[in-house]
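Dear U.,

Please find below the material for section 3 of the report. The protein was modelled together with thymidine-5'-triphosphate; I have listed the sequence and SMILES used, followed by the predicted complex structure.
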Amino acid sequence: MLYLASQSPRRRQLLEQIGVNFRIVDVDVPEQRLLGESPRDYVSRVAREKARAGLAVLEESGAAVLGADTEVVLDDEVFGKPDDAEDAACMLRRLSGRVHEVISTVWLVTRSGEWSDTSLSRVTMPTLDNATITAYIATREPFGKAGAYGIQGHGAKLIEHLDGSHSGVMGMPIYETARLLRAHSLIGA
Ligand SMILES: Cc1cn([C@H]2C[C@H](O)[C@@H](COP(=O)(O)OP(=O)(O)OP(=O)(O)O)O2)c(=O)[nH]c1=O
């Protein structure tokens, strides 16, 4: 059986979108970048820890667990989920008028092996004035989302250009995930 180690409704929705059968396994992994850890290594480590934590609580010998992590990166700084409205405003002011990177890594972990893939996207935001930022935060959409925006919602209005993967920015790179699942015979062609 395939499991998704995630509380994220977006990840669930994206996997459902391609008709994959899976169950949810609850995990709670701390997200803290280590000193000197690159953004890519950090995202990959957290995604792997989520998948491993999921596998650890399952007794089924043939279980396969997916874990994913998504972060926004600007100037080597990682923007996770905002703590509050002030933090969200601060992130959006920093992203305004700039191109940032979104790193989305997925790990597939079983008792016989571990495999991963990463999607890198470049996202261009126009200059955002204070009124736009305040109105966007009032939608509550920034909370629980890396970089304080959601490409799949009102946040689409803040994105001028995407060079990469829409599903990857949303939290679960579907092309890469499907390729991993296919390579390990967890889905068909
Ligand atoms: C940039 C961006 C992020 N996000 C979301 C995806 C992720 O859910 C979240 C990044 O936080 P994550 O720590 O990757 O995931 P999570 O805590 O929501 O879920 P879990 O660890 O249980 O799997 O930001 C969007 O929904 N849209 C976007 O455009």
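For the text of the report, you could mention the following: The first strand starts at residue 2 and ends at 4.

Regards,
Y.
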